[in-house]
Design a protein that fits this description.
The structure holds 2 protein chains of 2 kinds.
Chain A lengths: L1 E5 L2 E3 L7 E2 L2 E2 L6 E3 L1 H15 L7 E8 L3 H11 L3 E6 L11 H15 L5 E5 L10 H9 L3 E11 L2 E8 L2 E7 L4 E5 L11 H7 L4 E5 L31 H11 L5
Parallel strand pairs in A: 1-6, 1-8, 6-7, 7-13, 8-12, 9-12
Antiparallel strand pairs in A: 2-5, 3-4, 9-10, 10-11
Helix pairs in contact in A: 2-5, 3-4
Chain B lengths: L1 H9 L22 H6 L11 H18 L3 H7 L4 H9 L18 H12 L3 H21 L2 H13 L2 E5 L15 E4 L5 E12 L4 E9 L9 E7 L5 E3 L13 E12 L3 E2 L5 H37 L1 E2 L2 E2 L4 H29 L5 H26 L10 H8 L9 H17 L1
Parallel strand pairs in B: 1-4
Antiparallel strand pairs in B: 2-3, 3-7, 4-5, 5-8, 6-7, 9-10
Helix pairs in contact in B: 3-6, 6-7, 6-9, 7-8, 7-9, 9-10, 9-11, 9-12, 10-11, 11-12, 11-13
The chains are: A alpha/beta, B alpha+beta.
Chain lengths: ~260, ~425
C-alpha cells in the first residue's frame, strides 16, 4: 500500500493572530504543521509500522512557499519516506489559494507523479481556513470512496474499516477496496514527536519540488473574500440576583427561550 | 546558508591571523567598496539553521509534555525517574554528538547546547545529566580515546549507559591538579590500580561509566595526571550516598570511593600524563553547556513570570504596564539576551575551530550571574506566591545557585579571562 499524506503549513495553533487590512497578519508569525495533518502523518506511520497493513511507502505532500520544506521535514522526521513540495507563494489560508485548486493539485500529483497511490490521508480541516473541503473534493475528482472525520482506521482485507465521528455519534464505514481518501479527526491518534535521531535521518530523505503553475490548473480563487474581521470583543457579563431574574433576562433580553 | 559557507572558510584560521577583528567577514571580501556593498552580511548567531530549529522545537515539545509533569516529584524523591532516563535515550538527548555509526545522533555542538537549554527551561537537573554526559565524557572519548575504547563505549553511551566525570576531590576543587587519587602501574605493565576518593560527582548513582582523573606519577606533579575509563561495576568502586543539596536535588551528587580498583592499561584515555590537558580542554567547552543550562533557567523563570505580569492587576492596572516593573523586566531581558548571544557565539567559534576559551569563560561567568539575578527577581515579581512551592520559580532560584560554582567557579573564570587578556597584551 502506498500512502500519500497532505501536510499543510499553517499559523501555529498557539499564536494569537491579528487581523490587518488584508486579512490575518502572517508576517513574522510562527508557522507549524497543521495539527490535523500531523494526526494524518502519525496514522500513516502507524499503518506502516503495523506489518499487517503492508505499507510500502509514505509520501508527504505540501503546497505553499519554500518554507513548506520545513513542514515536510517534520513529516519526514515523524516517519514519512519522501516529500513532494508544490511551490506557490499564493496564500493558502483561503485568501488566495482555495480548496478547489488544492484538490486539483492533489489530483495532478496523484495522476502524474504518484499513480500507484492507494490511500490519501489528510487532516479533516486546516486551522487557518477551517474548510474541510480538500478530502471530499479530491475523492470526488478521483471518483474514489471517502471517509471523513476518521477516529479509527483498521485494515480489513483489501480495504479499510473506518469509524467516523459525527455530532450524533460514531458510525462505521466499510471501504471494500482501495484506493480511497480519508480525512483524520482529533481522536484518531496522538502524534509522536520527532526524536532527534529521526530528525537527522530525515535530512537524507528526498524532497521533490514542482511549481504549482506548471500543472495547467486554474489557481484563481473561486470565492472572493469580502472582509476579514475579528469577532466583537466579549462584553462583561452581569450578575443576576435569582432564578426568576435569570429567566426574565433569557426570555426578554437575550430572546433565547420562548 | 551563506553564513555557514563563510564560516567554513574561516575554520582553519590560526589565532595570529584574527587578532582583534571577528575575522569572519574578511574571509570573502577583498575590500573593494562595490564588493563590500554587494556581499551578503554574515548571519547573526541567533539565527539557527533549519535543523537546529527543528531540534529546538522537538526538545521544547518533549520537555513541556513529557518532562514537566514529573519535575516536582523527582525533586521530592531526589531521583531522576528511570523512565525519564530511558526517554533521554529514545529521544536522542544522550547521544547528541556521538556519530551515527555508533548509534548516535551525530549533531553539532550548538544543537547540544540548544537541547540543554530547552531541557533546563523545564528541569535543570535533567539537563545537567545530559550536559555532563555529552559535553564532558562523550566528547573527551571522541577527542582522545583510542579506537578500541571508542568502539567499546560509544555505542553503550548512545543507547543506555549514563556517564560521570570524576575530577574533583574534597581537597582538590579549583585546585584540581592537587588531586590525591593515584593510579599505580602494575609491575608487568598490564594494568593500573586506582586508590582515592572523588567528590561532588554528578550522576554518580546512575552512571555505568566513569571518566576518572588520577595521578599516575605524583613525582611529576600535574604532569602525572592521567585519565581512565572505569566501569562503575569494577570491584573496589563504591558510590557514596547522594549529597543533600539546596537545588538540583534530583541530580545525584556523590562521593566515589576507589579501593584498589584494577583498570586495564588500555583503558587509559589518550596518553599517560596528558590528563591535565584533557580536563582543562574539555572543561573549556563543557562550560558553554553550563551557560546554556543557566540561560535555560532564566528563560524558564520568564516563561512563568511574563504571562503572570500580563494577568495580575493591582491598583487598577496590569503589573505588565507598571513603569517600575517595565524598567526591571526590560533590563533582565536585555542581560539574558546578551548571555544567549554570547553562548551561541561561543558555540560557533568552537565549531569553526576558532579560539573560544576566553569567550566561553566570559559566557559561563555571565550566564550564571544572569540566571541568579533573574530567578531572584522573578520571585519578587510574582510576589507572595513566588515564595511558595506552588510556583516553579523558587526551584529555579535554588537550582541556579551552583551555576557560579561548578565547572569552574566564577573567580576561576575571571582568572582565566584575565590570563588571556594579559597574553593578548604582551603581543
Amino acid at each position: 500500500m502506498k500512502i500519500l499524506v497532505g501536510v499543510k503549513r499553517v499559523v501555529d495553533y498557539a499564536v494569537k493572530v491579528r487581523v490587518g487590512s488584508h486579512g490575518v497578519e502572517l508576517k513574522n508569525v510562527k508557522m507549524s504543521l497543521n495539527p490535523f495533518c500531523e494526526i494524518a502523518v502519525e496514522e500513516a506511520v502507524r499503518l506502516k509500522e503495523n506489518k499487517g497493513a503492508g505499507v510500502s511507502e509514505i509520501v508527504a505532500l505540501s503546497i505553499g512557499p519554500k518554507q513548506c520544506q520545513e513542514t515536510l521535514r517534520t513529516a519526514l522526521a515523524m516517519g514519512c519516506d519522501r516529500g513532494i513540495h508544490v511551490q506557490t507563494d499564493l496564500r493558502g489560508d483561503y485568501m488566495e489559494l482555495q480548496s478547489d485548486a488544492v484538490a486539483k493539485l492533489f489530483q495532478k500529483i496523484i495522476e502524474e507523479k504518484e499513480k500507484d497511490a492507494d490511500l490519501v490521508l489528510v487532516g479533516k480541516q486546516s486551522i487557518d481556513s477551517d474548510c474541510g473541503h480538500v478530502g471530499p473534493m479530491l475523492a470526488g475528482y478521483m471518483s474514489w470512496p471517502q471517509a471523513t472525520f476518521a477516529a479509527k482506521i483498521d485494515v480489513e482485507g483489501n480495504g479499510l474499516l473506518v469509524e467516523r465521528e459525527t455530532d450524533q455519534g460514531t458510525e462505521t464505514i466499510r471501504i471494500p477496496k482501495l484506493p480511497a481518501v480519508i480525512s483524520c479527526d482529533l481522536r484518531l491518534n496522538e502524534p509522536r514527536y520527532a526524536t532527534l535521531p529521526n530528525i537527522m535521518k530525515a535530512k537524507k530523505k528526498k524532497i521533490d519540488t514542482f511549481q504549482a503553475e506548471d500543472f495547467g490548473i486554474d489557481l484563481e480563487p473561486k470565492n472572493k473574500v469580502l472582509e476579514v474581521f475579528e469577532p466583537p470583543a466579549r462584553k462583561e457579563g452581569i450578575f443576576v440576583d435569582d432564578v426568576n431574574q435569570l429567566i426574565d433576562k433569557l426570555r426578554n433580553e437575550a430572546g433565547v427561550i420562548p | 546558508m551563506i553564513s555557514i559557507a563563510i564560516r567554513r572558510f574561516a575554520r582553519k584560521a590560526k589565532h595570529d591571523s584574527i587578532k582583534g577583528a571577528s575575522g569572519l567577514s574578511t574571509a570573502v571580501s577583498t575590500g573593494s567598496r562595490d564588493e563590500f556593498a554587494k556581499a551578503a552580511p554574515p548571519m547573526p548567531v541567533t539565527l539557527l539553521t533549519d535543523d537546529e530549529r527543528m531540534i529546538q522545537d522537538s526538545v521544547r515539545k518533549w520537555a513541556n509534555h513529557d518532562l514537566k509533569p514529573l519535575v516536582r516529584e523527582m525533586e521530592k524523591n531526589e531521583l531522576i525517574s528511570p523512565s525519564i532516563i530511558q526517554e533521554l535515550y529514545t529521544q536522542g538527548y544522550m547521544s547528541l554528538e556521538i556519530p551515527e555509526k555508533y548509534g548516535g545522533v551525530g549533531m553539532n555542538f550548538t544543537s547540544a547546547c540548544i537541547t540543554i537549554q530547552e531541557i533546563s527551561r523545564i528541569d535543570p537537573s535533567i539537563a545537567l545529566m545530559v550536559d555532563v554526559h555529552n559535553t564532558l565524557v562523550v566528547n573527551a572519548i571522541r577527542f582522545w580515546a583510542s579506537e578500541f575504547l571508542q568502539d567499546k563505549y560509544l555505542p553503550k553511551l548512545a543507547t543506555d549507559s549514563v556517564s560521570a566525570f570524576c575530577l574533583s576531590e574534597t581537597n582538590a576543587g579549583s585546585d584540581a591538579f592537587s588531586m590525591s587519587t593515584t593510579a599505580k602501574l602494575s609491575s608487568d605493565g598490564s594494568h593500573y590500580v586506582i586508590n582515592g576518593t572523588k567528590s561532588w560527582i554528578t550522576s554518580a548513582r546512575e552512571a555505568a561509566l566513569l571518566l576518572v582523573f588520577c595521578n599516575a606519577d605524583p613525582s611529576k606533579g600535574y604532569k602525572g595526571i592521567t585519565a581512565f575509563l572505569v566501569d562503575t561495576n569494577s570491584p573496589g568502586v563504591q558510590i557514596g550516598k547522594p549529597e543533600s543539596k539546596l537545588g538540583l536535588k534530583a541530580s545525584s551528587t556523590c562521593q566515589i570511593f576507589f579501593d584498589d580498583v584494577k583498570v586495564d592499561a588500555d583503558h587509559v584515555l589518550g596518553e599517560v600524563g596528558q590528563g591535565y590537558k584533557y580536563c582543562i580542554e574539555i572543561l573549556n567547552e563543557g562550560r558553554i553547556g553550563i551557560a546554556a543550562q543557566q540561560i535555560g533557567i532564566a528563560k524558564g523563570c520568564l516563561d512563568v513570570v511574563m504571562p503572570y505580569l500580563n494577568e495580575r492587576e493591582q491598583f487598577g492596572q496590569k503589573l505588565l504596564n507598571m513603569p517600575a516593573l517595565q524598567q526591571q523586566y526590560a533590563q533582565a531581558a536585555t542581560e539574558l539576551h546578551a548571555a544567549e548571544v554570547m553562548m551561541l557565539n561561543s558555540c560557533r567559534l568552537k565549531e569553526n575551530g576558532l579560539p573560544f576559551v576566553k569567550e566561553a569563560a566570559m559566557t559561563k561567568l555571565f550566564a550564571s550571574q544572569v540566571a541568579e539575578k533573574i530567578s531572584s527577581q522573578s520571585i519578587e515579581w510574582l510576589g507572595g506566591i513566588g515564595y511558595t512551592t506552588d510556583m516553579i520559580v523558587e526551584k529555579f532560584y535554588r537550582d541556579c545557585k551552583v551555576g557560579s560554582i561548578y565547572e569552574g567557579s566564577s573567580n576561576i573564570q575571571r582568572q582565566t579571562i584575565a590570563k588571556i587578556m594579559n597574553s593578548e597584551l604582551e603581543q
